[in-house]
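Minutes, structural biology subgroup

Action item carried over from last meeting: produce the C-alpha cell record for Zinc finger, CCHC-type, retrotransposon Gag domain protein (Tanacetum cinerariifolium). EB confirmed the sequence was re-checked against the source entry. Recorded below for completeness.
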Amino acid sequence: HCFPRFTLKFERLKREYHSIRQTNIETSTEFMQHFLRLAGFLGAAAGTEEEQEKNF
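Output recorded by EB:
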C-alpha cells in the first residue's frame, strides 16, 4: 500500500530536481544543500555526475 505513495513522492522530487533554480532569497550554500539533498534522495535517477552538473 505504501508503494503508490512512495512513487508519487519520488516523481514529485524528480520533477523538482529537474526544474531546480536558485531563488533570490536563497544563498548559494542553501541552494547547494537543497540540490544535494534532492540528488541524494533520487540516487541513480538524478543521473551521472555530468548530468547533475548540468542541473546545478
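Discussion: The mean pLDDT is 81.
Next step: EB to file the record with the rest of the batch.
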